[in-house]
Specification:
By secondary structure, the protein is an alpha+beta fold. It has 14 helices and 22 strands. Bound molecules: zinc ion.
Length: 663
């Protein structure tokens, strides 16, 4: 995409160069992704309790909606769909038949992880805490004597245990169990989960470790989970096994399968791969594991390989919404520039995984491009997947739904559904939204870096002293960010503020006075001996942008997408005059597009008003020669944030808008 500035090649100013160990906070206080004491990373995440989202900002509202609606909804559906019943059967407490997908346990684990993050910032209601305690106890009872824990292979297919690594998702489920346990340990809720996860992890080390069988899982996830478990426990065999799973990939151990070895990234050793391939979620989870292991082992080649794959994905195979994966058939990346908006698969889990990968790469390198991409995925690809009521979800996230759309079923739904037979996405949304505050800012010895702007506060230990910055902003609706240094160590430290790649102009004021603050490599650096109460106002200009795709993205040639700040916009049938066919709307690229708040829409978004016309395309499907459209009646139309589409009525939608013919 022409809009993204992806050429920065150095670390953010002032950040620790790669190769320098990062001091870690004490175990038990970390959030998602917590590099260990010996890790080689540029930035360190803030701990649980060091970042807070106010309830009135957009991210704060998303987090609260997640707590009040999405999480209880997930818990209800785990009971209703049989996931909890499966574990009861595995524990020998019921004789119900197994229900759902063979990897249904992973939905329980993801919901547990989400609950742990939520309970770390709110007392939650008793029901959520009971869910964690009851489910952790149930998992312990369902665990076999040797540590194995998987309800499908305990209840429904005991003879198949460990026999189908290409298909079974056993290590994938184990990975999500471990992730839940790590979250529980870091937040101090459900600590018994750690014992369960460690028993299973110890079995994995025994079976798959240095003297064990040479196998990998068809669905990556175990790699990043074991790295995180190592960070929590300091037990080196977990990290060694994570690395071994990476090292064994690319040897064809999984066989060709239905879609070939590239489908599950088993076609090339991970350090040699130059292109993202296959199932997008698997590729991105694998990338997360690569970065985690690279950071802990300090292996630059592995990190370089991850960055190369990221470049291929973001430069050639990512939707303008930050979504990944074009193809429905195998939920896969397509060919370079194969990004059809109407046939976009764009699985919700892939956009979530993109946030996870970009956060890890940001910590590892300090490079602003990862924060930019994280923000794009969060505000568009991820946010669109959940309804305003927090209880309906998209699995695939098209960028266009046509008039007369007949797609039905779960994979091509034009409306959000309350649950799915393969319910990977809703609890994945829950665990990201519950931990959103963990992605706002980072720290290192020289100061604090703010990457995502949201009302709330962030704090850290900097140069041995406590530092806190309170943030007030209406971002992403407005670009003004007001920061107050609420406390300071009395010695100079650096407040680094990200200037998003989409922003061409900004101003900075300190205590009301303008200051020259050139951004370098995506960050403004303000170094002061900050007096408590010092205010900083960052004003990011947020004009409406017309975004064009690379000409090789044939599917959207002649179109632009409207964007403002981090948000991509779309047209919806609900905003057009009755009888108007959405596909006939043309944008006049020379006419000004204005932005204004709309209080009558859920969440009071800023919407765009654009001008154009209705094309008169005629009836014939094909015509001889180059087809010229006749300009039709002028039209003024509204564009709404893409993440809000489908919340009013089911109907056509499009992100990419054809530009009116000129001359
Ligand atoms: Zn999913």
């Amino acid at each position: 995409m022409t809009e993204q500035k992806l050429s920065d090649t150095s670390a953010a100013p002032g950040v620790r160069p790669i190769g320098t160990p990062v001091p870690s906070g004490p175990h038990g206080s970390a959030g998602p992704v917590a590099p260990g004491p010996g890790a080689v990373a540029a930035l360190r995440p803030l701990g649980v309790g060091q970042a807070r989202l106010d309830a009135d900002g957009l991210l704060g509202r998303w987090r609260r909606r997640n707590a009040e609606d999405t999480l209880p909804h997930c818990v209800d559906n785990l009971h209703r769909a049989g996931n909890i019943g499966n574990l009861r059967a595995a524990a020998g407490e019921s004789d119900e038949a197994f229900a759902g997908m063979w990897f249904a346990d992973s939905d329980v684990h993801k919901t547990l992880e989400a609950a742990a993050w939520e309970l770390s910032v709110s007392s939650g209601d008793g029901a959520l805490r009971s869910f964690v305690e009851d489910t952790a106890a149930l998992l312990a009872r369902a665990q076999q004597a040797d540590g194995y824990l998987n309800s499908y292979f305990t209840v429904a297919a005991p003879d198949e245990r460990w026999r189908r690594p290409d298909w079974s998702h056993e290590l994938y489920c184990a990975g999500h169990l471990i992730q839940a346990a790590v979250a529980a340990a870091r937040t101090g809720v459900g600590p018994e989960l750690v014992a369960v996860a460690r028993r299973f992890a110890d079995l994995l080390v025994e079976r798959f470790g240095p003297d064990g069988v040479e196998e990998v899982c068809g669905h990556p996830e175990i790699e990043t989970a074991l790295a995180e478990l190592y960070r929590l426990t300091g037990h080196r065999p977990y990290l060694d096994l994570a690395r071994r799973f990476l090292d064994l990939r690319g040897r064809g151990l999984l066989g060709p399968g239905r879609f070939g070895p590239a489908y599950y990234q088993d076609h090339l050793p991970v350090r040699e791969a130059r292109e993202v391939t296959g199932h997008a979620v698997r590729q991105l989870y694998l990338l997360a594991g690569m970065v985690d292991v690279a950071v802990e082992t300090g292996e630059p080649q592995l990190l370089e390989a991850a960055e190369r794959l990221w470049e291929d994905a973001v430069h050639r195979r990512t939707y303008v919404t930050g979504a990944h994966g074009s193809r429905h058939r195998d939920e896969a990346y397509g060919d370079p520039y194969e990004l059809p908006p109407d046939r976009a698969y764009a699985e919700t889990c892939a956009a979530i995984a993109s946030v996870h990968v970009n956060w890890r790469l940001l910590l590892a390198t300090g490079r602003a491009r990862y924060a930019d991409e994280m923000e794009r995925a969060l505000y568009n690809g991820v946010a669109a997947a959940v309804s305003s009521d927090g209880r309906h979800f998209f699995y695939s996230n098209p960028l266009q739904v046509r008039t007369g759309h007949t797609g039905s079923g779960e994979e091509a739904a034009a409306r959000r559904l309350p649950w799915y037979s393969c319910a990977c996405c809703p609890p994945n949304i829950a665990r990201l939204m519950a931990s959103l505050h963990g992605y706002l800012a980072t720290a290192h010895d020289d100061g604090l870096q703010i990457h995502l702007y949201a009302s709330g506060s962030v704090s850290a230990e900097v140069a041995g002293s406590a530092v806190q910055v309170d943030v007030r902003t209406e971002y992403p609706w407005q670009g003004r960010v007001e920061l107050t240094v609420a406390s300071g160590p009395g010695v100079p430290w650096t407040l680094a503020l990200r200037v998003p790649a989409w922003c061409d102009a900004y101003t900075v004021r300190i205590d009301g006075g303008p200051v020259m603050a050139p951004a370098r490599d995506g960050y403004i650096r303000l170094t002061r001996a900050w007096a408590p109460g010092t205010t900083v106002v960052l004003d990011l200009e947020m004009p409406v942008r017309q975004v064009s795709a690379h000409p090789r993205v044939d599917a959207v040639r002649g179109c632009v997408a409207l964007a403002r700040g981090p948000l991509v916009y779309c047209l919806e049938q609900a905003d057009l005059p009755p009888g108007t066919v959405l596909e006939d709307v043309r944008l006049d690229p020379a006419a000004e597009v204005t932005a204004a708040g709309r209080e009558d829409l859920p969440g009071s978004p800023v919407v765009l008003t654009a001008r154009g016309s209705l094309a008169d395309a005629g009836d014939s499907l094909y015509t001889a020669g180059i087809r010229r459209e006749r300009g039709g009646a002028p039209l003024t139309f509204t564009a709404v944030p893409y993440f809000l589409w489908g919340n009013r009525s089911e109907g056509p939608m499009r992100v990419w808008i054809p530009v009116a013919a000129t001359g």
